[in-house]
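[Automated response] Your request has been received and processed.

Submitted sequence:
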Amino acid sequence: FAVLSVKTFVESQYFFHTANIAVRIRATLQASIYEKSLRLPEAAAAVPPVTLMQVDTGKAEELAYSAHVLWNGIFQVLGYSALLVHYVGLAGIGGLVMLGTCLPLNAWLQRRLSTLNRKALQASEARVMCTGEILSGIRAIRQMGWEDVFVRRVLHRRAEELEVQRQRDTIGAYLIS
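Generated structure:
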């Protein structure tokens, strides 16, 4: 009981401090991007600053949460593998072989997930840009009676976005299971 209590306390402190660091990293990066975007001319930005502020700083924040997994995960896999073989014996080696055969599949799924994440971001940006264009010219669209055409255009972009998200979530479910 005492060991589990200490473990829980130490882990909660670790996650608390990690969350603080992650939030500070995200806030610092967002402030830097915002400050630089104010100095750049609008045509000079290759990627919209809002995208950088939301997506890329979110990735940096996730890195802060998972940085220790890079070194800690190796020790955990080796330690648990040794315990498995020690307690189960030769049958545990079968489990390790199964784990080894799943690694290439997992790597392929991760690459596919990364590609789908990029596609989802592009689809989302296309939908947001289309919606922004519609909102900027809403008076002319209403006067000409073109609402249905533009609604279909946005719904088509949204359907594309949802399809990419469905594929991404399906692969994510395979990776988790």
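Summary generated for your ticket: The chain has a mean pLDDT of 86. The two ends are 30 Å apart (CA to CA).
If you did not submit this request, please reply to this message.
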